[in-house]
């Protein structure tokens, strides 16, 4: 399920470029080491313009989840129902990513541990999640 | 500014089904503003300020020739694509009047699909970048569903959503302007609704309408010379502490109003316990419940006991909410209808009058980077 490719020139471009290379990258300030998500051009906390994009393990905890049951767009018709996840990354200061599950949903709940993996779509590399074993 | 500015006129078109208005947005806007002028006893030519929000396309200068505006002295727009700025537009208008930049300001919001497309598409386009659209999210309903699932996880009972929706239908059933006029909603019907996005069924979701709603503000001094009892602005606040967050708000399920509410109560010189009736922005049931809680009208712990149908209705409820039916059951003017209802309620003109109501809280859209809310009061509160 995708709606075009992400733009290449925005502040989050390294996130998408990371996925294309098979890794998850989250922004962190090089000046004060605070995690910065959503990513910014400048760290509002310490004033640094030096932002870095370390690789982060694709391990998360479901912070919120909601099943979509109505096709809000034509592309959803043969996908519903499906769960939308908000995944918190313990290794990136709790930064949260919206995402989709790709795998069995049995037992999926807020608090579930999930593991991410890159998945090729027609126009970009996506991050998908499955319940951790 | 407490008590220095008053709402003096409300006007609106009917709530048409989306795409069904008999004219474009300019026509609807003129109809609403002229009706508000008639309500106030003001010559439309004397309006000299214009305020709106949510990228409304009907800038003041597009209305001047139709209104016969003698001179536009001030016009402004609250930022944001959703309803978060509805009450911020009231605050901007009040600031303009209070500072002498304009004397009579109309606050309005107009939606007609023929002019601006589907409201849900406009909001999604404004607020949702690729981190949403590439992850199966194309409607604000899905984000509100995520936040509400978290709110329920944090302790708010699902029964609160049902109670609020049924109370709003109860109110709308007696409001001739409402889409749900004549229709109440029982718990079994609510529970059996077509599922949309968890935890929402069809009745938890606001409508989409073609409509224009206008409210006229002026100074308290001018207001006292006009037709109807002034409804005074006791306090208003806008802003936020989080900024654009991509779902990274620290308290994810919250309505987000904690800081706004603190400034609001300080300016109004009263607190949530002194609110007699509330008009709470209800794009969806869950965010409205979150807004009630984050204004301090009720805590999460109190929610099971307080947020019941009997407590939320105008007929003797402890905390009457959305006495017009709100966006869910009256119709969706992107929050502007709630402001009109606040004025009607404090004039005693509501279809669901709250006995002895002297104060009314009205909120803009919850869970957005730019939030806003206000308290209006009668003469007795000054």
Automatic annotation (TrEMBL), chain A:
Gene3D superfamilies in UniProt: 6.10.30.10
Residue stretches making up the ChsH2 rubredoxin-like zinc ribbon domain: 16-49
Domain ChsH2 C-terminal OB-fold: 53-114
Record-linked PANTHER family: BLR3430 PROTEIN
Protein name: OB-fold domain-containing protein
Organism of derivation: Sphingomonas chungangi
From TrEMBL, chain B:
Coiled-coil stretches: none
Organism: Sphingomonas chungangi
Protein name, UniProt field: Transporter
An example molecular function term from Gene Ontology annotations: acetyl-CoA C-acyltransferase activity
Start and end residues of each Thiolase C-terminal domain: 249-364
Pfam families named in the record: Thiolase_C_1 (PF22691)
